[in-house]
Amino acid sequence: MNSQPPLNPPEGGLSGCSLPLGGGGGGLPKEELRRFIRAQKKQYTATQLAAMSEEICNKVLASVWWQKASTLLLYYPLTDEVDVRPLIAEAFESGKQVLLPVCKGDELELHLYEGEASLGEGAFGIMEPTGMLFPEADYPTIRLAIIPGMAFDRVGHRLGRGKGYYDRLLPKLTKARLQGICFPFQLLDEVPTNTHDIAVHDVMSDSENP
Length: 210
Hints:
Elements: H1 30-41, H2 46-62, H3 64-68, E1 71-73, H4 85-93, E2 97-104, E3 107-112, E4 119-121, E5 127-129, E6 144-147, E7 151-153, E8 158-159, H5 165-169, E9 177-181, E10 187-188, E11 202-204
Parallel strand pairs: 1-2, 1-6, 6-9, 7-10, 9-11
Antiparallel strand pairs: 2-3, 4-5, 7-8
């Protein structure tokens, strides 16, 4: 994959790693678990994280969901997230309709990605597309949504950053395959959940999960 420019600074942070207070993450309060994940990331070099990102992206590219989707949702990564910029470039260059989120108040809008030159810095220092707004009426055409998170568990529960943006977006993606994506140290046996949380269908990591 092609080399990429440096990422923006993050907003705030192995499968089988040992967690304090027991067992896989479920016994930890959400904010404590977020701190733990950030601490885990610091154990890896930028080169190691880049290699993991490349392996995860290759796994996404090989999936049938990627190959079938003509309209898909991705995200522009922060430094503590899997670098999916190669996926953005590959999808755009192959003629897929690529959507990226834009923060508007307490909500995420989806906008068309029209190339790197069309990006501008938005909320929290995240690069956001300046292309056309993708209307909610067309959300059923989104067939694959690649979703970042602070942590996931093996049945698809997601821990976000605590602002609820994706909690409000995911229920609107009624026809999309929801695919979490994370580094292996973010894939836990259990994460704390609320009744309103939407689980993803599967999680892409560079550990043993398919």
